[in-house]
């Protein structure tokens, strides 16, 4: 395993809002993360390297109840706010739970994020933004 949870945590600590997300993704990709999966319920995240070895963060916050049914349209509007830097990570996780999103998978090879519902059905896929060079 090329990276440790402390490496990931150090990069994640730099993220203040969704606007910082592309830099975070590129930083952890450089450290050797190829894929990760986040569970909204408690923030547990599993990070994988290119050999499919993985490490977990464990719970990051108090347990959230995932709403039923899925409300994808409202979630999309909350997601857009987060991507624009209007909400922090915990608020985003609460928004996911409130709208029926159980978690998301990040494929850093394909640079795509896939959100899934309670049954782990893929409900929304988005390209991970590239870093802007100023």
UniProtKB/TrEMBL annotation:
Keywords recorded for this protein, A-Z: Viral envelope protein, Virion
Record Pfam families: DUF1398
InterPro entries cross-referenced by the UniProt entry: DUF1398, YdfO-like_sf
Record SUPFAM superfamilies: YdfO-like
Domain of life, per lineage: Bacteria
Protein name: Phage envelope protein
Lineage: Bacteria, Pseudomonadati, Bacteroidota, Flavobacteriia, Flavobacteriales
